[in-house]
Design a protein that fits this description.
By secondary structure, this protein is mainly alpha-helical. Helix content is about 70%, strand content about 5%. The chain has a domain of about 70 residues. The strands form 2 sheets. It has a two-stranded antiparallel ribbon. The chain has a two-stranded antiparallel sheet with strand order 3-4. It is a multi-pass membrane protein. It is found in: Membrane. InterPro entries: O-antigen_ligase-rel_domated, WaaL-like.
């Protein structure tokens, strides 16, 4: 295995040196490769990490030789600023710097353990390294479609594995065999929804932008029909990827991802144009009528929203334990990176009695009926994270880290809203749909993140900063006056 990994990394290094754009796209397509693990001497490593480090090294050397290292040259050589007036900060540059500082402090709060250093490396330093390369590649418009194709290919492979698991029962992790749920290329079902959800909405915005721009060009300028026409096979391919990805999430029974997708699609339809608003309104009216005619379905939906089902009650217990942990002298510092399980252990409850909210006699039965008590008892494990996006960051990075991450999300949405309002022309219709898709991808992350951990995993951390990089670059495109963020001359080399 290690020999194959070395051969792959060597070929990837050659690709990164010759075609940085293709190497960047390959990293995105291979995000699930973090599950291929090996040791580099005493240092644990994943294949995804190796690819990011090689990619960054190739970019760094090429940029150094071309005199295009933005932050390094701008901060280190004041005398040379006149020749580097186009070299300023990256999108989200202050937030990234502060996040790295807070993550380093949180590593110290955890005692600089091997686990905390590993989290610092894999979830913060390396995703930021990839973000730097990604922004320099993605800002070149000719490279952008490669990124979307990479996301589509990755989603396709993961979805096909999940559908094969559902059809055959093969390739499932031992813990999930016979569960009726699929995991795709991952170790557990929710990981599939966490990964595919944002990609589905991003690809939907990309596809809609391409087709909408094509239609408007045909209406406004007959001479450009052949030049602007989107090949039907490409459109069908992307549509197929989207449908297969939704199917894979459905088979995984990842309810958080499905709810996040529904909410994001509703918001997308409301904001896109008047036709989409009519469609969303009609669908919502039909859904409400259907629910009103099905008391059982309405009851299940209410139970899910109010967190009264099994998963909801488990989550509420996790959050209660996390609250006790934070109030136990950790409100400011949190538990420290990779230290949540140890910090929450004194407050952990071995299990809960799963409440039946339709049974008014539940409490008496639990107290006096031993058989009933055994039937409603649910053992609880100590999870790696509290399964809430804000509590995750609070427990790992402390109060400052949680507030900083909240601000990054708020700023992301503010940028998207400002950019959407600024896009007026027909030629910018593509960018408008893309930005709206990116905004709704973050909505999927936040909504699903209310009951899960959508950042603290190698692939999800990189995917988060890929979305941030896209949004930042599109903001610069639409508002040229702020196009002073990084070098203007990085190319495909």
């Amino acid at each position: 295995m290690i020999a194959l990994i070395i051969i792959f990394v060597v070929f990837f290094a050659l690709l990164a040196w010759r075609r940085l754009d293709l190497a960047t796209a390959l990293v995105i397509a291979a995000l699930p490769a973090y599950q291929i693990r090996f040791n580099l001497g005493f240092l644990p490593m994943t294949l995804l990490e190796a690819m990011i480090l090689v990619l960054f090294a190739a970019w760094f050397i090429k940029a150094w030789r071309a005199d295009e290292l933005p932050l390094l040259f701008y901060l280190s050589f004041p005398r040379r600023r006149e020749s580097h007036q186009n070299i300023k900060q990256y999108p989200f540059h202050l937030e990234i710097i502060l996040l790295l500082i807070v993550a380093l402090v949180s590593t110290g709060a955890a005692g600089f353990t091997n686990a905390s250093l590993g989290i610092l490396k894999a979830y913060f330093i390396e995703p930021v390294m990839f973000f730097i390369v990604f922004v320099n590649v993605f800002k070149i418009k000719e490279n952008r479609n490669k990124i979307f194709w990479a996301l589509a290919i990755s989603a396709l492979v993961v979805s096909l594995v999940a559908i094969y698991q559902w059809l055959s029962g093969n390739l499932l992790p031992a813990a999930w065999q016979g569960s009726g749920r699929v995991t795709g290329a991952f170790a557990y079902p929710n990981a599939l929804g966490l990964y595919l959800g944002p990609i589905i909405i991003t690809l939907s915005g990309w596809l809609l932008g391409l087709t909408a721009q094509n239609i408007k060009y045909q209406i406004s300028n007959d001479k450009q029909i052949l030049n602007s026409k989107l090949p039907i096979l490409k459109a069908l391919f992307v549509c197929s990827v989207i449908l297969l990805s939704v199917t894979a999430i459905y088979f995984s029974h990842s309810q958080g991802a499905l709810i996040g997708l529904i909410i994001a699609l509703v918001i997308f339809g409301v904001l896109y144009n008047w036709r989409s608003r009519l469609i969303v309104t009609a669908v919502m009216v039909a859904a409400l009528i259907t629910l009103s005619l099905s008391p059982t379905g309405l009851g299940r939906l209410q139970s899910k929203i109010m967190l009264r089902d099994l998963d909801g009650q488990i989550r509420r217990q996790q959050w209660a334990e996390t609250k006790k942990m934070l109030l136990d002298g950790r409100i400011i510092t949190g538990a420290g990176l990779a230290n949540y399980q140890m910090a929450v252990a004194p407050h952990h409850q071995e299990g809960i009695f799963v409440r039946d909210y339709n049974d008014s006699d539940f409490q008496r039965k639990v107290v006096f009926n031993a058989d009933y008590r055994r039937r409603v008892w649910q053992p609880l494990e100590t999870y790696l994270y509290p399964h809430n996006i804000f509590l995750n960051f609070w427990s790992e990075l402390g109060l400052v880290g949680m507030l900083l991450f909240l601000w990054i999300i708020v700023k992301y949405f503010l940028i998207s809203l400002k950019s959407i309002k600024s896009v007026k022309s027909i030629k910018s219709e593509r960018e408008r749909a893309l930005i709206l898709g990116l905004a709704c991808a973050m909505i999927v992350i936040v909504v699903h993140g209310l009951v899960d951990a959508p950042y603290f995993k190698n692939d999800l951390a990189v995917l988060f900063w890929v979305l941030a990089g896209m949004m930042g670059v599109y903001q610069i495109d639409i508002h040229p006056q702020i196009n002073k963020s990084f070098t203007n001359n990085t190319n495909k080399r």
